[in-house]
Design goal:
The structure holds two protein chains of two kinds. Chain A is an alpha+beta fold. Chain A has eight helices and seven strands. The longest helix of chain A has 15 residues. The longest helix of chain B has 25 residues. Classes of the chains: A alpha+beta, B alpha+beta. Chains A and B meet through helix 1, helix 2 and helix 3 of A and helix 2, helix 4, helix 5, helix 10 and helix 11 of B.
């Protein structure tokens, strides 16, 4: 296969960026999209040009480090996978593929396709935990939790914090990310003692960090590589109202 | 420097309790007077940093990732062991200890492994209290499954994402402390050197990966939790950035590197498909609970798997190991897969794969039940290979996955350099020559949550009011070394990329220091690696400069260290004239191709001391077994 990558290049946060096109030959369909990027970068290095910076690490869809727009979609054309799990069999010979970073005020570009998502960590600092010091847990089976609640809590906890929800939302809202964490703890008895402060603090931090509001378009759920459900946003809204009234 | 294991006296089951009483304590009001540096914030580092801060210490935590949640611990799939015996199937602390020490082929310390088993139950309690959503039964209680090398069900799990859930638990504990200001977290900062003041570890030199800024940091103690070195092989299941640099820099400053040749090759990974492959993907060992491993009986049989009738299939693990069957431990399952392929029974286009077949499980349990257990793994497989494992067997082949070797530590997890502690995969301590499945998460969290918070006080107690200044000459000279090295890497301006040389190193190691080793191949590696190292320093091409975000420069520094480690691995493998666990020497095997240990001569830990410009020196820590008798490890 031969493909053309039209890639966003930006030297750093302060500089303006632009698209640059690169032709890549000898692509095979069992290569991952990032392996094509690797191959292109090797060529650039040997030509004395700056390789394309992009964040990636586990390359198996779990660490949440990677995240780019591939042809106008967060994490590319497939449902329920991260950018690192996209393989070239999803594209055709001669195709031009547009590659862009996450675009959101709260995620400034570091270089090329790499962005700064530390806002997510600051939201978590404001309540994304259960206060339990090491050693003070009781026996793990002391509190039975219904399988349904545990499974639903797991579904929420499966969030990898990649930021696709924010990047794909027209408002750059972080409601799915925050909703998933609030919801995980709301579903578990261990999360109850701090439920009220948690949701109020996390929502306040989310707003402070410059994420937009939710207008229920559902784009986040559609593009989430872990298929986190909008129901978690609904649960967070209920938790928020409960906390605000109580 | 101290090279004593410091294993406490007394009966095995009382050692840790007695030791905790004997350890010196730091008064709660004095803890805030101490600074601790933690490098790496995966399971071991995050749990340690959070626990230190809860106790009152000041913590500086460093990661080359943007967030602690990106650490590679997150990719662990299958589960975490604990001796809860909830299933009432005969488990106990002693049995978990016994399985683990036997699984490690009797090349780990009894006392460490017993302590690990003892602590395992506390870990599960802690994680549940943090809101980790482990799998549960309909009655609301925790579910367990079985894993390789054990005949009880003691593995707690969260679908196929246990590592993710445990890391997010440790991350939540850490981030709570970050919010309180008790932990200062330095994201995207890589440790590039260890600083020793008067022979003790008192600081580190870091590079900010975004700005290139090089900084000095001082503390009363330094804790490394920087993971394993499997990426020395280039292709492994490790994340792309996983590296040995922090540990290797400490090694160059005097910390011994123990058992570097003990690497784990995991039997169930997706096979290599092209030369552009950047990494390998693991398929959790839990799949072997229901999947059956087989190859065609006839060599070179290229029929579709569905066209190969039952009588033409060789379920070789079930045949060779009737009592453990498909759940034979990793080292054995891997070696047997290689053997089948070497004999011409391999499948797929390369002949380097065996089948892992779920058709019986789908008939027995139904497709939905199989999907509920393994759905995400099946999806991942299909995504990578294009094949649907519900309809056709998976093709799998062994791949480098974990490294049992690492920096040498004593019972307190302190290296031979006073003040330098090493946790998790970065140390050598608990898995001997082979790690059992679901034991890495257990060890990382045992070290971080429950061991180091107790033992570090013993070192710190007599350092009250010790102040370490970063303008000390030791910091200046270490910083200069780091700067010079970066400049040197950038100035070579040769004609080969970092990855290109890394791939060549990986191939030398995979061919000679991989699943089976023999003297002639190891000697080749010992000759070829230094030559490749010269090639690297004379012909590598690293673009850009130090003062910017430069991933190629990061990679170059890591590969430079891998090029030194690789040689030490080969030397270690050559010096160990026996087969044990993942270290299989062709010269030392039984008639039925099982590993032949030599307990008389090799019941020791090999701890290598770095020598500038010369081969490393071997120190031996004799392993004493008081409770278990060393038997031939049999899974038949």
């Amino acid at each position: 296969m031969q493909i053309t990558l039209k890639v966003w290049r930006q030297p750093d946060a302060a500089s303006a960026g632009n698209f640059v096109s690169y032709d890549v030959d000898n692509v095979t369909e069992d290569m991952s999209f990032f392996e094509v990027m690797d191959m292109l970068n090797d060529t650039l290095v040997l030509k004395g040009e700056e390789p394309i910076a992009f964040d990636h690490d586990c390359r198996e869809g779990i660490c949440g480090t990677c995240g780019i727009f591939i042809d106008g979609r967060a994490h590319g054309p497939l449902q329920g996978v991260t950018s690192c799990q996209v393989h070239m069999r999803s594209f055709s010979d001669g195709q031009e593929i547009v590659v862009e970073p996450w675009r959101a005020t709260a995620f400034p570009v570091i270089k090329d396709l790499a962005v700064d998502r530390s806002a997510f960590d600051r939201i978590m600092q404001s309540g994304g935990y259960i206060s339990v010091n090491t050693g003070s847990g009781v026996d793990a089976n002391a509190t039975p939790i219904s399988k349904d609640s545990a499974d639903e809590a797991f579904d929420a906890a499966a969030c990898i914090g990649c930021g696709a929800c924010v990047a794909t939302c027209k408002n750059a809202s972080a409601m799915l990310f925050v909703g998933a964490k609030v919801s995980q703890y709301a579903l578990l008895p261990q999360g109850q003692p701090e439920a009220k402060e948690r949701v109020l603090n996390m929502v306040a931090t989310m707003d402070d960090e410059g994420f937009g509001s939710c207008t229920n378009t559902g784009a986040c759920e559609a593009e989430c590589p872990k298929e986190i459900s909008l129901e978690h946003i609904a649960r967070m809204n209920r938790e928020f109202i409960k906390a605000s009234l109580g | 420097m101290s090279f004593k294991s410091n294993i406490p006296d007394g009966p095995l089951s009382e050692k840790w309790t007695k030791h905790k009483f004997d350890l010196k304590l730091v008064n709660p009001a004095n803890k805030r007077k101490y600074d601790i540096i933690v490098v790496g914030t995966g399971l071991a580092g995050a749990s340690a940093a959070a626990s230190f801060a809860e106790l009152g210490y000041n913590v500086q935590a460093f990661s080359y990732h943007e967030s602690p949640r990106r650490a590679h611990s997150i990719a662990a799939q299958g589960g975490i062991n604990a001796a809860k015996n909830y299933p009432n199937d005969g488990d106990s602390i002693y049995r978990l200890f016994y399985d683990t020490i036997k699984g490690g082929d009797y090349r780990a310390r009894e006392a460490n492994v017993y302590r690990l088993a003892e602590i395992s139950n506390n870990i599960i309690d802690q994680c549940v209290a943090q809101g980790v959503p482990f799998a549960r039964e309909y009655g609301g209680l925790l579910d367990n499954r079985s894993f390789g090398g054990a005949q009880v069900s003691r593995t707690f799990y969260a679908r196929g994402q246990t590592g993710q859930q445990l890391l997010l638990g440790a991350y939540s504990a850490l981030i709570r402390q970050m919010g309180k200001g008790t932990v200062q977290f330095h994201p995207r900062n890589e440790m590039l050197d260890l600083v020793l003041v008067n022979g003790e570890a008192k600081g580190i030199i870091t590079r900010n990966l975004v700005t290139g800024e090089i900084n000095r940091h001082s503390a009363n103690a330094v804790v490394l939790a920087t993971g394993g070195y499997g990426n020395v092989f280039f292709l492994s299941t490790n994340a792309m950035a996983s590296n040995v640099t922090a540990a290797w820099r400490a090694h160059r400053r005097g910390a011994y590197f123990a058992n570097p040749c003990f690497t784990q090759i995991h039997p169930t990974c997706i096979p290599v498909s092209s030369e552009h492959q950047s990494k390998l993907t693991l398929m959790s060992e839990s799949l072997r609970n229901d999947g059956r491993v087989w190859v065609p009986k006839k060599k070179g049989d290229d029929r579709k798997p569905s066209d190969i009738p039952e009588e033409d299939r060789d379920y070789y693990l079930e045949r060779l190991y009737p009592s453990f069957g498909n759940l034979a431990p990793r080292d054995i399952a891997s070696r047997r897969a290689k053997e089948m392929c070497d004999k011409g029974h391999g499948v797929g286009s390369t002949g380097l794969a065996v089948y892992l077949d779920f058709s019986d499980a789908i008939i027995r349990l139904g497709r939905d039940a199989v999907s509920a257990k393994y759905g995400n793994l099946f999806d991942m497989y299909q995504q990578i290979t294009g094949d649907n494992p519900y309809e056709t067997p998976m093709r799998i082949y062994p791949a480098v996955h974990y490294t049992m070797g690492g920096l040498w530590v004593d019972y307190n997890l302190m290296s031979n350099v006073p003040g330098l502690f090493v946790l998790g995969e970065a140390n050598f301590s608990d898995h001997g020559a082979n790690r059992l499945g679901a034991s890495a998460l257990m060890q990382g969290l045992a070290d971080g949550y429950f061991i180091i918070p107790q033992t570090i006080g013993n070192y710190l107690s007599d350092k009250l009011n010790e102040t370490v200044y970063t303008d000390d000459s030791a910091f200046e000279s270490a910083e200069n070394d780091v700067r010079e090295r970066a400049e040197k890497l950038l100035s070579v301006n040769g004609s080969r990329t970092v990855d290109d040389i890394h791939k060549e190193l990986g191939k030398i190691l995979w061919d000679n220091v991989g699943m089976s080793r023999e003297a002639s191949g190891l000697k080749n590696a010992i000759e070829e690696i230094p030559a490749l190292r010269d090639e690297f320093w004379n012909n590598v091409r690293v673009p850009g400069n130090n003062e910017s975000f430069n991933p190629e420069l990061e990679k170059a520094g890591r590969v430079a260290d891998f090029l030194e480690l690789g040689e030490t691995m080969a030397r270690d493998a050559l010096s160990r004239e026996e087969s044990c666990g993942g270290h299989f020497r062709e010269e030392h095997q039984t008639e039925d191709n099982e590993a032949r240990r030599d307990d008389e001569r090799y019941t020791y830990v090999s701890a290598w001391e770095y020598q500038e410009g010369a081969s490393p020196n071997l120190h031996k820590e004799k392993l004493n077994f008081e409770s278990v008798s060393l038997t031939t490890r049999s899974y038949k």
